[in-house]
Each structure stands twice: as structure tokens, then as C-alpha cells.
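Run log // design_07
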């Protein structure tokens, strides 16, 4: 795999996140951790430096986890994050791959998928393609966990000054990630409608950081 533009961000990524957002993004990522009770195989897409992976491993040491992540450096940091918490890594399978071209093996099935701050890196047709591809390896009743920055139509609950602040924050984030990580995404595309059109039911969602960020959990319908 060629080097990923995210490689050069990996070392400072967690520090930058904490500096900009404190623990806000981590609260969103881990909001639905309890829903992993009874799940056996979790697929983490674009896991980054491993903050969700570590929290899930700590809480569910027997959970099998497959990580699909295009950046070798992010994978190294996620491995180090597990080690720093003295967590075993044998339950984790690391696949360095581009999700847009990843061909899952025929034998792989998962009962949970996590995309935290990941789908907003892509263009709408790429998000649709990711949902289509990944949903084929999800068992009926499997869960999709996601956290993202809120799109404009999810900011209705916020007052005008807060909406303007959120829009400026999101614009700045896109400029940053387009410049330094060459993401294709240009603005936030709400992933709920395509997920629901693909046979997922929204079980719950929550807002964080005064509606700047949201997190949700969806369930794959049995007959989809
Ligand atoms: C914005 S970061 C989010 C990281 C992490 N999930 C979090 O909650 O902070 C996006 C992550 O997705 C990875 N990524 C970006 N494009 C990808 C692709 N096409 N295939 C697989 N991983 C990708 C990046 O390397 C990075 O780790």
C-alpha cells in the first residue's frame, strides 16, 4: 500500500484532538460501548490512533476486532495505545487497506461496525459505496456505531451564534484535513439516510459538545 497522507498526522493526532476538543470526541465514540455486550466480532474502519479500539478492548477483552485502516503510522499508534494500557493485542487483526478498494474475504462476517469520525472524510458517493460494501458482511441484527461532526440540518437545535461557530469549526476542520490529509470529502454528508435506505434502523443517537458532534447506533434489519 502507498504511504497514507494521514501518516504524518499520526504522532500528534491524539494531542491535537485533546487540545481542540478535550474529551468531547471520546465521549461521542464511547457513548454506545454497552451495546457491544454479547457481540463477538467488531470491524473498526479508519480507527486512527486507537482511542475507540482501546476503550472497546478494555471493556470487552474477548471481543474479536478487525481494523481496516489505510495509514501504517495510525496502525502503529493504535498498537502502542493497546500496549500502553497493558491490553493484549492477539484479539485484533490489522488490515492496512483503503476502504474504497478493500475486498473483504468471503468468510468474514461481523456483528458490529464502528466508523468514528471516518465517513466525513469521503464524498457522498464514496460513503454510499462504503455502506453498500460493508453491509454485505454484517450479520442480521448487526450494529453500526458512528460518530461524526453534525451537518447543518442536525444543528437546528442550536441557536444562531452556536450554529455559526459550528459551521466555522467544521469549515476549519475540512480545510485542515483537505490540506494535510488530502481527504476527498468537501462537506458533511449525513450518513443516516443512506444507512436507513440500506436496511438499517436507528436505535438511538445523542449530541455532544453543544450539538457540534453526534453519535448514533443503528441495527441491520433481519431481512436486508
Ligand atoms: C479523521 S481520522 C478518524 C480516526 C478515528 N476513527 C477517530 O475516531 O479519531 C480518519 C482515519 O481514517 C483513516 N482513513 C482515511 N481514509 C481511509 C481509507 N480510504 N481507507 C481506510 N482508512 C482511511 C485515516 O488514516 C485516519 O486514521
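design_07 sequence
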Amino acid at each position: 500500500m502507498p504511504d497514507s497522507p494521514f501518516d504524518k498526522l499520526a504522532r500528534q493526532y491524539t494531542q491535537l484532538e485533546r487540545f481542540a476538543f478535550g474529551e468531547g470526541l471520546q465521549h461521542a465514540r464511547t457513548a454506545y460501548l454497552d451495546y457491544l455486550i454479547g457481540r463477538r466480532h467488531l470491524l473498526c474502519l479508519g480507527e486512527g490512533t486507537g482511542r475507540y479500539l482501546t476503550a472497546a478492548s478494555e471493556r470487552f477483552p474477548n471481543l474479536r476486532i478487525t481494523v481496516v485502516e489505510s495509514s501504517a503510522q495510525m496502525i502503529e499508534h493504535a498498537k502502542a495505545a493497546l500496549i500502553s494500557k497493558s491490553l493484549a493485542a492477539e484479539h485484533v487483526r490489522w488490515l492496512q487497506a483503503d476502504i474504497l478498494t478493500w475486498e473483504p474475504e468471503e468468510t468474514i462476517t461481523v456483528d458490529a461496525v464502528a466508523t468514528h469520525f471516518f465517513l466525513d472524510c469521503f464524498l457522498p458517493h464514496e460513503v454510499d459505496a462504503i455502506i453498500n460494501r460493508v453491509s454485505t458482511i454484517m450479520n442480521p441484527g448487526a450494529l453500526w456505531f458512528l460518530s461524526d461532526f453534525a451537518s447543518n440540518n442536525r444543528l437546528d437545535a442550536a441557536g444562531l451564534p452556536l450554529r455559526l461557530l459550528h459551521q466555522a469549526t467544521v469549515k476549519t476542520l475540512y480545510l485542515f484535513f483537505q490540506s494535510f490529509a488530502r481527504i476527498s470529502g468537501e462537506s458533511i454528508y449525513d450518513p443516516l439516510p443512506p444507512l436507513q435506505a440500506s436496511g438499517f434502523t436507528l436505535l438511538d443517537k445523542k449530541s455532544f459538545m453543544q450539538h457540534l458532534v453526534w453519535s448514533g447506533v443503528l441495527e441491520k434489519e433481519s431481512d436486508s
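The helical segments are 10-21, 24-29, 51-59, 72-84, 124-135, 160-181, 192-197.
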